[in-house]
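Example for tutorial group B:
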């Protein structure tokens, strides 16, 4: 049975994480071979993951951390004990 675009998109993260079984991989690849919008979505998802990975590697400067903590402590309620 062929995948719909909605079904294909729902499986893309698992596909990139190598979490799909061989039958699901084959069904997704078949869909991607015939669906340009889903291929574009997959390219965008890959790029997003790559960019997010780079951003996570950047260390926040100490001064910025201090200012962020001060900002949040002024605006957020105290956590319950």
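The residue assignment follows.
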């Amino acid at each position: 049975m062929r995948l719909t675009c909605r079904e294909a998109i729902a499986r893309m993260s698992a596909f990139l994480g190598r979490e799909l079984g061989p039958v699901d991989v084959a069904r997704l690849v078949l869909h991607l071979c015939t669906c340009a919008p889903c291929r574009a979505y997959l390219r965008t998802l890959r790029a997003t993951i790559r960019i997010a990975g780079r951003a996570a590697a950047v260390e926040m400067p100490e001064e910025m951390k201090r200012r962020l903590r001060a900002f949040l402590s002024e605006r957020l309620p105290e956590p319950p004990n």
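The radius of gyration is 20 Å. Compare this with the pattern of hydrophobic and polar residues in the output above.
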